[in-house]
């Protein structure tokens, strides 16, 4: 059974501050309790100096209609982060890309805490994503100059995506 964007039955590994598994937790609980540390993945898809961004679906429970990295999602209980990154890329954009691990970072947001496993994949010529409407409203390519315009215009951007994009372009 494929879990939908608003699925509350998804089970995640609960981890400690050193990213060691200490139990399991329902995804829905992690969205509102920052003491429940879990794992997520973020995938940067790039072509040269451009990054692919997705507008999260209006159906999403968290950050609906917010521009985010090309692909992101939760790591299921017992799943390896790289496998989760490939799964999310396939589910959200219908893509299979070779991925390289970029970093792992602890993200502390007001409503949740998670280890973000960040991967990057180069887009081959003729890349044609197939969007899952439950996950993604739209996609758009953007370079550093375009990103600066988005910020100046007040485009609704995920804070984590902003940090990852700025690191990619070394805008920090």
Structure description:
By secondary structure, the protein is an alpha+beta fold. The protein has one domain: Nucleoside Triphosphate Pyrophosphohydrolase, CATH 3.90.79. It has helices at residues 27-30, 81-93, 144-153, 159-169; strands spanning 11-15, 21-26, 38-47, 50-56, 67-69, 71-74, 100-108, 113-122, 136-142. Strand 3 (38-47) and strand 4 form a beta hairpin.
| Strand fraction | 35-45%
Global morphology = globular
SSE succession: EEHEEEEHEEEHH
**How much helicity do the residues have?**
10-25%
Rg, alpha carbons: 15 Å
Mean pLDDT, all residues: 93
As an assembly, this protein is single chain
Distance between the termini: 41 Å
CATH class (first level) name: Alpha Beta
Keywords:
172 residues; alpha+beta; Nucleoside Triphosphate Pyrophosphohydrolase; two-stranded antiparallel sheet; disordered N terminus
Short recap of the structure:
The protein has 172 residues and is α+β, with helices and mostly antiparallel strands. It is 22% helix and 35% strand.
Question: What does the secondary structure layout of this molecule look like, with pairings?
Answer:
Blueprint lengths: L10 E5 L5 E6 H4 L7 E10 L2 E7 L10 E3 L1 E4 L6 H13 L6 E9 L4 E10 L13 E7 L1 H10 L5 H11 L3
